[in-house]
Amino acid sequence: LDVLIGDTYPEIVAHETRIMMRLTSIVLDNLCTLADVIDKCAELDCLIAISKVCKELNFVRPTLTEEKVISIKQGRHPLHILNCENFVPNDTESSQEAGYVKILTGPNSSGKSVYMKQI
């Protein structure tokens, strides 16, 4: 019995080693393709996460134009609306008519930084 079973373990280890070497060779031969697939999966994961958050929080897709205009209605900072129950949405206009330069003032902790980040 020892003659039959005793040599089995080294054979299993040798077979495992051959499988790992073959797998390593396949991975190395296809490294660029695998890296591209991983990049595409990461990008898809990000897009799915963004679309899920947009749907859950009722975000809208911005309209991009050639004009030098920023027009935001009921703008909200995505992180603060999750953590703050009484978040106040803000409108923002920046155009030739409304002016391009804005001066933002207010007391400490009044939301100036949050407002600037949401824009």
H and E string: HHHEHEH
Shape verdict: elongated
Helical region count?
5
Low-confidence stretches: none
Instruction: Walk across the major sheet and give the strand order.
Output: 1-2
Query: Please, how many domains?
Result: 2
Largest sheet: 2 strands, antiparallel
Report the end-to-end length measured between terminal Cα atoms: 77 Å
Report Rg: 29 Å
In percent, how much strand structure appears in the residues? 5-15%
| Mean pLDDT over the residues | 88
Computed structural class: mainly alpha
Question: Got a strand count?
Answer: 2
Looking at how many chains there are and whether they match, the oligomeric state comes to single chain
What percent of the residues sit in helical stretches (DSSP H or I)?
Answer: 55-70%
What does this structure look like?
The chain has 119 residues and is mainly α. It folds into 2 domains: 55 residues; 49 residues, no CATH class. Helices cover 55% and strands 9% of the residues. It has 5 helices and 2 strands; from the N terminus they run αααβαβα. It is elongated. The model has no long low-confidence stretch (mean pLDDT 88).
Short structural description:
With 119 residues, the chain is mainly α. 55% of the residues lie in helices and 9% in strands. The N and C termini lie far apart (77 Å).
Keywords, separated by commas or semicolons:
119 residues; 2 strands; single chain; elongated; two-stranded antiparallel sheet; mainly alpha
Write the layout of secondary structure elements.
Elements: H1 2-6, H2 8-29, H3 31-56, E1 70-75, H4 78-83, E2 90-94, H5 112-118
